[in-house]
Design the sequence.
């Protein structure tokens, strides 16, 4: 029999809840920092009077940004709307991590109370699965749109100004980032929610026989 904490929850469930929020917290922190750097064009960790501005290579959708000799350029030099679009996937991930942690916590609480096949568990499992799939598709779409926008802006020389705020000899973008693991987890969650639904029917039938 699993040992209980002073709150009455099995220690394994309490550990799972702590782990969920620890992982969610790390995910939120990492994505929040990425969002801040992308939106502001500056690092939050500039010490000793160092220049906080970061290079264009810090943009998540760029894998190469080489300035011409003598040229000076920073991420903050590109248009704000473009930085906002490039930060959108990370901002979405912040919201996703928090929502997923809340739903998982609700599921674990029901399971710890001995109610693994109840309607709230199935509802939260279904919601979590659909959110993972939908957010995964939206994340990839936003990242693809951001990468395409960077490419188009970098290729626009209709004005005398440099399109990305400086004279770059080489600019190349990454392939869109599709969170396949996230979407696959959502599909697995849908399968589990179906299994939980079947378990709920069996439990109701057994209860009716008692």
Sequence:
């Amino acid at each position: 029999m699993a040992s209980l904490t002073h709150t009455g929850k099995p220690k394994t469930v309490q550990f799972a809840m702590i782990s969920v929020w620890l992982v969610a917290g790390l995910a939120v922190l990492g994505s929040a920092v990425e969002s801040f750097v992308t939106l502001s064009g500056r690092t939050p960790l500039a010490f000793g009077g160092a220049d906080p501005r970061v290079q264009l290579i810090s943009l998540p959708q760029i894998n190469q940004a080489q300035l011409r000799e003598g040229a000076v350029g920073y991420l903050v030099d590109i248009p704000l709307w473009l930085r906002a679009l490039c930060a959108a996937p990370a901002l979405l991930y912040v919201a996703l991590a928090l929502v997923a942690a809340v739903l998982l916590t609700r599921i674990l609480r029901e399971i710890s109370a001995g109610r693994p096949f109840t309607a709230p568990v199935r509802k939260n499992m279904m919601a979590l699965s659909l959110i993972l799939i939908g957010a995964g598709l939206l994340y990839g779409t936003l990242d693809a749109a951001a990468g395409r926008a960077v490419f188009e802006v970098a290729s626009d020389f209709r004005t005398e100004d440099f399109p990305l705020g400086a004279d770059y000899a080489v600019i190349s973008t990454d392939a869109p980032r599709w969170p396949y693991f996230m979407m696959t987890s959502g599909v697995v969650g849908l399968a589990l929610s179906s299994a939980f639904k079947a378990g709920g029917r069996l439990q109701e039938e057994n209860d009716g026989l008692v």
Residues 12 and 21 are 14 Å apart (CA to CA). The helical segments are 11-40, 80-112, 119-154, 180-209. The chain has four helices and two strands. The chain has a mean pLDDT of 87.
